[in-house]
Each structure stands twice: as structure tokens, then as C-alpha cells.
Amino acid sequence: MNLNPFDFYRFDNPDGSSKLWAIRYNHDGTFTTFWGKSGAKLTSKTKGIVHPDDMHKLIRSKQRKGYEHSG
Asked: Which residues pair with 30 in a beta bridge?
């Protein structure tokens, strides 16, 4: 069982709907992301880390798109 915490991000659309995105480092050289509309089943994907800054670049990319850290 993986007890590593996720960092959650949320994007609020002008129409009142929202999207969620989460990321977690797995301590085995991979990270997992979850994404989708609020209230729906989230999609997930696990990727290997090629460069130590891979996760940080992805997080910054989401923040530039308007996602805000929520926990």
C-alpha cells in the first residue's frame, strides 16, 4: 500500500464547473497523476521520472494554466 500524499490542484471554470488534478511521488522512480472533472471518476497515469525536475515542470505547467494548489 502506498501512503505517500498527493498534492491536489483545482481549476475553476467561469461556468461554475471545476477540474481536479493531483500528483504523487512514488519513491520508486515514478510519479502518479490523477485528473478529471469534479464529481466524476478521475483518470490516472503513472510515469517514470527521466529527469529530477520532471514533476516540478509538470506542476508549474498546471499552475500557469490556472490550477491552484488546494492541499
From this structure: 48
d(CA 68, CA 27): 24
**Sheet harboring 18-25: ordered strands across?**
43-48, 30-37, 18-25, 7-12, 68-69
How many residues are listed for the chain in this entry?
71
Residue 43 C-alpha cell reads as 483518470
Among 11, 20, 25, which Cα is nearest to 55's? 25
Cβ-based neighbours of 27, under 8 Å, separated by 6 or more: 4
11: nearest Cα among 23, 25, 3, 21: 21
Name the pTM for this structure: 0.86
- Residues 26-47 pLDDT 10s: 989 999 999 999 999 999 999 9
